[in-house]
Amino acid sequence: MKRLLMLIPILFIVCEINAQSFSGDSWAKAQSSKKANIVVTYTDAPKFAEKVNGKYSGVCFDIMNDFVAFVKEKYGITVNVTYKDLARTQDFDLFLNTVKASNGGVFGLGDVTITDERKSIYTFSPSYFSNVAILATNQSAPRLSSLSNISKDFNGMIAVVQNETTHEQRMRDLKAKYFPALKIETTVTFDEANKKVASNPKYFTYIDFSTYMQVLEQKLNIQRQPAGDQKGENFGFIMPKNSDWDKPMQEFFSQNGGYTNSTEYRKILASNLGNYILRLLDAMNE
Q1: Residue ranges per domain, the chain?
Q2: Which fold has domain 131-232?
Q3: 22-128+236-284 adopts what CATH topology?
Q4: What is the 3-state secondary structure (H, E, C) of the chain?
Q5: What is the pTM of this model?
Q6: What is the pLDDT along the chain (286 residues), one digit of tens a residue?
C-alpha cells in the first residue's frame, strides 16, 4: 500500500503534463470587442518554429505576425499574442494533444502536415508551405537506386521515425509495398531518430525539409537519398476543432491572389531559409 501511495503523486504529475491545454478569445468575441487575446504554441521545427536565444523564430512566427497585422488592418481588431512553451517542445504527440484539448483562439505552429484524418480533429489554416519528405541515411550507407529496390539496396537496415507523424505512416506504407521484412523503430523526437542515423549506418529515416536544413547547417553525418524524395505534402497551422478563427485565416491566405504567392511571403522564406535553400527547395518541388 505504501508503494502505491508513493506512486499516486507521480501519476498526477504525468497526467498534468499530458493534459496541458490553453484557452484564447473566440473570433466572435474579437469582432465584438475589437480586441483579442490569443495563445500561440509550437513544436520544434528548425527554421520554421523554434526558440533561438530566447526569441521565437522561424517562418511560422513571421507569418503569424503578418496575420495579426492583417486582422488589425482589415477589421480594426488589436490582437494580443501570448506565447506558450510546452514541457517538451520536440514531443510532437504532446503538441498535437495540447492543441486538441485547448479552446478558442489557440494556434499551433510547426511542420504539421495537413491530412484528412487530422482535419477531423483540428481546424487547419490553408497550406503555408509545400513540403518535400526526404529519405535520409548515414553518410556511409549504400545509395538507394529506387524505392522499388529498397529491400535489396537497404537489406538488413532498420527504419527509425518520430512517432505519431506522417513519416511513421509513410514508412509503414513503404514496408507494405516494397520491404515486408523491414523493422521499424519509433522515437518521441525527431532529434533521437537523427542521432541514430548519424551514428549507425544500419538506420535510415524520413525527415521534413525543415529538419534537412538543420542537417546541412550542422554538417551531421547524414545524407539525402534523392530516390526516396516524396512530394505532395502541405503544412498548415492547427487550431482546436471548436475554433472560429478559420474565417480570418482563410481571408488572410487568400488575399491579393494568395499570400503564399506574395513578395512578402517569399521574403520570409528567404530570410529564414536562405536563398540557396530556397533555390534547392524550388528545384525539388519542380
Answers
A1: 22-128+236-284, 131-232
A2: D-Maltodextrin-Binding Protein; domain 2 (3.40.190)
A3: D-Maltodextrin-Binding Protein; domain 2 (3.40.190)
A4: CHHHHHHHHHHHHHHHHHCCCCEECCHHHHHHHCEEEEEEEECCECCCEEEECCEEECHHHHHHHHHHHHHHHHHCCEEEEEECCCCCCCCHHHHHHHHHHCEECEEEECCCECCHHHHCCEEECCCCEEEEEEEEEECCCCCCCCHHHHHHHCCCCEEEEECCCHHHHHHHHHHHHHCCCCEEEEECCHHHHHHHHHHCCCEEEEECHHHHHHHHHHCCCEEECHHHCEEEEEECCEEECCCCCHHHHHHHHHHHHCHHHCHHHHHHHHHHHCHHHHHHHHHHCC
A5: 0.78
A6: 333 333 333 333 333 445 589 999 999 999 999 999 999 999 999 899 999 999 999 999 999 999 999 999 999 999 999 999 999 999 999 999 999 999 999 999 999 999 999 999 999 999 999 888 999 999 999 999 999 999 999 999 999 998 888 999 999 999 999 999 999 999 998 889 999 999 999 999 999 887 888 888 888 999 999 999 988 889 999 999 999 999 999 999 999 999 999 999 999 999 998 887 777 777 776 6
